Amino acid sequence: MTESETFQAGGPLRRDVLMLGVSATVAAALSAPAVAATTPIPANQRRQEMGMVKTKDGVEIFYKDWGSGQPIMFHHGWPLSSDDWDAQMLFFVNKGFRVIAHDRRGHGRSSQVSDGHDMDHYAADAAAVVEHLDLRNVVHIGHSTGGGEATHYVAKHGKGRVSKLVLIGAVPPIMLKTPSNPNGLPIELFNDSFRAPLAANRAQFYLDVASGPFYGFNRPGTKISQGAIDNWWRQGMMGGAKAHYDGIKAFSETDFTDDLKAIDVPTLVMHGSDDQVVPIDNSARLSVKLLKNGTLKVYDGFPHGMCTTHADVINADLLSFIQSTG
Question: Which of 59, 68, 171, 263 is deepest in the core (most CB within 10 A)?
Answer without folding.
Answer: 171
